Amino acid sequence: MGDGDATGGAPDLISRLPDEVLGDIITLLPTRDGVRTQAVSRRWRPLWRAAPLNLQVDYGLCSQHTNHANLATKILDGHDGPGRCFTMPGFRLRNRLAMVDGWLRSRALTGLQEINFSYSTLDRQQQQPPMPPSALRFTATLRVAKFGHCKFPNEVAPSLKFPHLKELSLVKVTISEDAVHGLLSGCYVLEILLLERNVGIGRLRISSPTLRSIGFSGPSEAIEFHELVVEDAPRLERLLPLHPDQGPATIRVMRAPKLETVGLLSAHISKLEFGTTAFQEMIALSLGT
Fold first, then answer.
1. Res 280: pLDDT
2. Residue 164: which of 147, 186, 181, 140 has the closest Cα?
3. Half-sphere exposure of 39 toward its Cβ, with a 13 Å CA cutoff?
4. Cβ(145)–Cβ(168) under 8 Å?
């Protein structure tokens, strides 16, 4: 493509932008569209390989689920990195754990800033499949991390440090209380925490100088999340039970001077304590500072 189109139309002004700007544009596109920019012109051909990779392993990549894996492997093999976002929501694992681990170890994902990793609930297994430890190799650069429908590698949690992570979501994850506490202690700038229907957490204690919002619920199969204790959260503004009928039974807020909103409660969340003040059998609360 030159300065104008084949019929003498308007000049191609977008191709005159600096490579850095065009790279940002390509990164923001859905994966399939980003790859297609290589066909625009000779000028655009090397830009996709150099732009931070945004890889979405879902139906936006291909309409046929069976081809997702092959296309993802081909894209990772053909890109030089760095990575920006890796999205793998509801992936049907089957016997491809080694392949997923290989994806996450790819140099094309080095420096990853966002990860959305979950397995499909259609793969009926007695136990949740494990999350590869390689999914946690990006701790130094991640800003957003979402993990779902998998078994967390509890043994690595105490050593994890997330200096830039602002948003953490665990949804239907099998994880121990100690592992959650270890994760949170390594999150130095965390602002948003989502803990929804996870298995293995009975009592959770939170102390964070940076958290602004916490969303939480127990698992749907049984009420085993008994107590949430907010020990010290000076910037916390929102404390939101996502599924009030799934607990925890007791919420204790020891210090949260900026807390403004507490979501819907129910008979399963029967006690709410602020310091020495207790509210029981409340339906909804909206609090001023």
1. 56
2. 140
3. 5
4. yes
Count CB atoms within 10 A of the CB of residue 142.
Answer: 22
Whether pLDDT at 175 is above 90: yes
Please name the amino acid found at residue 114.
E
Using the Cα atoms of residue 62, residue 63, residue 65 and residue 66 in order, give the sign of their dihedral.
negative
pLDDT of residue 264: 67
Q: Please tell me whether the peptide bond between 82 and the residue prior to it is cis, using omega within 30 degrees of 0.
A: yes
DSSP state of 188: S
Please give the DSSP secondary-structure letter assigned to residue 31. Answer: H
Whether the pLDDT of residue 119 is over 60: the answer is yes
Taking Cα atoms as reference points, which of 201, 212, 207 lies closest to residue 184? Answer: 207
Contact 18, 50 (CB under 8 A): no
pLDDT tens-digit profile of 29-45?
676 676 666 656 666 77
Cα(first)–Cα(last) distance of the chain, in Å?
Answer: 59
CA–CA distance, 268 with 247 (Å, rounded to integer): 5
Q: Which residues contact 28 (CB under 8 A, 6 or more apart)?
A: 54
